[in-house]
Design brief:
The structure is a single chain. By secondary structure, the chain is α/β, with parallel strands linked by helices. It has one domain: Spore Coat Polysaccharide Biosynthesis Protein SpsA, Chain A. About 30% of the residues lie in helices and about 20% in strands. It contains eight helices and 13 strands. The strands form two sheets. Strands 2-5-4-3-1-6-11-8-12-10-9 form an eleven-stranded mixed beta sheet, sandwiched between helices. Strands 7-13 form a two-stranded antiparallel sheet. Strand 9 and strand 10 form a beta hairpin.
Length: about 280
């Protein structure tokens, strides 16, 4: 996953000043009682260990969460960098590798624009736990207003160089909690995953709006909402928490990211609840 943060109306990435390229292993942490508790403990450890906490005036930071799908990760990073090279150049970038995964580590190193790599090698965590860790690590930095969430199997497919800036501008509306960035050519669920009610989209200018469920698919989220949604045991837990906020969801049009990992879904391999790799 790739995470970017913004504290202005135009999307920028928040920075760390740590330029170390060698991984900082987190796998030696004492094993907590539950994987959910692990997400809290590891997120706290990440924040405490991150020297970037003192460099927030740069307002730019990008984190990548990866694991188990090196080829898809490569396409995700390459397409993002090709579409928004100015964002890549502006940011000091931190990657978090979920599990002992040398191929993904190699992709990150070969990209050449990721400054720091964190690893957790004791086990492969569930999507919900891993997302809680890395989102918390970004949103926990003071002054960060927006978080861009992009999993490692989403390719950038747009000719609209202003798409991310438009999404950030929409988030100025405090009644909006999430801007979906999935391309409109991608099939989406027609019903709310928690209430099971039909999602009734209202057409706006270059976007649609609805009382829709929260998603781990590509999106822009306000950091204040992150604090209310995470940590979450799984995506459904996050959706329940988001529903309680009463905020709307926006679908940017035509959208930005296309799913390239549907035939190699990590969600089919990793349990949504718990912290271990399952078949």
């Amino acid at each position: 996953m790739v995470y970017a943060a913004s504290r202005s109306g135009v999307l920028v990435l928040a920075t760390t000043n740590d330029s170390a390229t060698s991984p900082r292993p987190l796998g030696t942490l004492p094993r907590p009682r539950t994987a959910y508790q692990a997400s809290l403990d590891i997120a706290a450890r990440l924040a405490a260990a991150d020297p970037g906490n003192s460099s927030l005036e740069h307002e730019r930071q990008l984190l990548a969460l990866a694991g188990g799908r090196a080829k898809l990760l490569a396409r995700t990073l390459e397409s993002f960098a090709a579409r928004w090279p100015e964002q890549v150049r502006a940011a000091h970038i931190c990657a978090f590798v979920n599990g002992a995964d040398k191929p993904s580590r190699s992709v990150i190193e070969q990209a050449g624009w990721i400054d720091r790599t964190l690893t957790y090698e004791s086990e492969v965590m569930s999507i919900g736990i891993a997302t809680s860790i890395v989102v918390g690590a970004v949103a926990g930095h003071g002054g960060v207003d927006l978080v861009l969430h992009l999993e490692d199997d989403w390719e950038t497919r747009t000719i609209d160089s202003d798409a991310l800036a438009r999404a950030a501008a929409i988030m100025e509306d405090q009644t909006v909690g999430q801007v979906r960035l999935r391309h409109r050519s991608e099939q989406c669920l027609a019903r709310h995953m928690i209430t099971q009610k039909p999602i009734r989209w209202r057409q706006g200018e270059e976007h649609r709006r609805a009382d829709a469920h929260f998603t781990f698919n590509p999106s822009l989220v306000r950091s204040a909402v992150v604090d209310r949604v995470f940590p979450a045991r799984d995506e459904r837990d996050a959706q329940r928490r988001f529903l309680m906020t009463g905020l709307d969801v926006i679908q940017l049009e035509p959208g930005v990211f296309a799913h390239i990992g549907s035939q190699n879904s990590r969600r089919l391999l990793i349990g949504r609840v718990g912290g271990h790799l399952v078949s």
